[in-house]
Design brief:
Length: 287
């Protein structure tokens, strides 16, 4: 039996898997049929993250299959002609595939972590509907999405959810506390550790609230103020000085925060309904 026969059989099997993955993805995009229940539904918490996770999973499967096929094919084709060159070429191509897999795995893990946080905060915010608030999730904007939008008598709020991991070991002191002084977020992990500092979430929350404010003002033909909020589920949150342009919550006791917020002009029921209508239409899943 030729030594190339098992190599060819393995390559053909791996290639078949890759072809099937690509075919299923292509068929789903080109299908003339669609599910009748998704179109027109409101977007659920973390919908964009779910879509990114699905796309990354396909990339991982594709590159994993390529990592199995390419080295074998290169070695089988050029191994007898130029063994050293074929070995180097196979190693380079394998390294490229593994690098892509590693990058996609890291991104998928980050999206999964963010998805859990969005689901947790979304479930807590949904309780506000019992207090006559309107709550929307995963608002699609130009190049980004707003995780949650809350509309009520106390104003319009754009909530950006962030997930930050905690250390496995527990320390004494102000452990797992996130503080905000109007300039930056400080994450404290214990009395004997230095907090790490971030400003990116604050800038992002303000930028997205400003974009939503502009969009809403045009949509309802009236100036609307949008309050940016950062949600950090699982952390104890503390505002060192009040008030701030951005507020910080951990997702718990949402009703108390949104009911008592006094940083903006109270909204009439009519204006709340107009704002909720345009946001509702924009958050519906399109065909």
């Amino acid at each position: 039996m030729s030594p190339l026969l098992p190599i060819g059989a393995f390559a053909a099997s791996a290639l078949s898997v890759l072809t099937l993955i690509k075919y299923r993805a292509w068929k789903e995009r080109k299908s003339a049929r669609k599910t009748p229940v998704e179109s027109g539904m409101l977007r659920e918490p973390g919908k964009s993250s779910r879509e990114e996770i699905a796309a990354l999973s396909t990339d991982i499967e594709t590159n994993l299959t390529m990592a199995l096929i390419i080295p074998v094919l290169v070695s089988a084709t050029f191994g007898s002609i130029a063994p050293l060159v074929s070995l180097i070429g196979a190693a380079v191509l394998l390294a490229v595939c593994l690098r892509k897999i590693h990058s996609a795995l890291n991104k998928r893990a980050q999206y999964r972590q963010g998805l859990v946080a969005e689901l947790v905060v979304g479930q807590e915010l949904n309780q506000l509907m019992l207090a006559q608030f309107r709550v929307f999730h995963d608002f699609p904007a130009d190049g980004f999405n707003i995780d949650h939008i809350v509309i009520g008598a106390t104003g319009v709020f754009a909530i950006e959810t962030k997930s930050r991991k905690k250390p496995k070991t527990r320390n004494k002191g102000n452990e797992y506390e996130a503080t905000y002084d109007g300039k930056c977020l400080r994450f404290h992990e214990g009395a004997n550790t230095q907090p790490w500092v971030e400003t990116g979430p604050i800038e992002q929350a303000m930028r997205q609230a400003k974009e939503l404010q502009k969009w809403l003002s045009q949509a309802v033909a009236e100036q609307i103020f949008v309050q940016p909020v950062i949600a950090l589920p699982g952390w104890n949150t503390n505002l060192i000085e009040k008030p701030h342009r951005v507020n910080l919550i951990n997702g718990k006791n949402c009703t108390s925060f949104f009911n008592t917020f006094g940083g903006g002009k109270p909204l009439s029921q009519q204006l709340q309904a107009r704002i909720a209508h345009v946001v509702d239409q924009h958050c519906r899943v399109k065909d």
